[in-house]
Amino acid sequence: MMNFIKNFRKDEDGAVTVDWVVLTAAVVGLAIAAYSSIEGGASDLTSNTSSYLDTRNPATVISTE
Q: Which value, to the nearest 10 degrees, does the dihedral of the CA atoms of residues 13, 14, 16, 21 take?
C-alpha cells in the first residue's frame, strides 16, 4: 500500500489533463464574455439603423440621372 501511495504521488500524468481543463474553461469563459459584449453592441446598432431607415421615404429620393 505504501508503494502505491508513493507511486501515485510521483505520477504527474493527470496534472496535464487538469491544466488543459482549466485552460479550456478559461477560453470558454472569455468567449462567452466577448459574445455578450458584441451581441449587445450589435443589437443597439441594428436598432439604431432600423430607426433611421424608418424615418426615410424612398419616394422622395432625387435621382441624379
A: 160
